[in-house]
Amino acid sequence: MPTRGVHAASSTTLDHINDNDLALLRRIAARDRQAFEQLYNQYACRLAGYLARILWQPDQVEDILHDVMLAIWQQAPAYEPTGRVSTWIFGIAKYKAFKARASAPRQYPERLPALPNAPDEEILEEGLMRQERARAVTAALATLRPEQRAVVELTYYHHCSYQEIAAIMDCPVNTVKTRMLKARRHLIAHFTRLGLPSL
Question: How far apart are CA 155 and CA 54, in angstroms?
Answer without folding.
Answer: 11
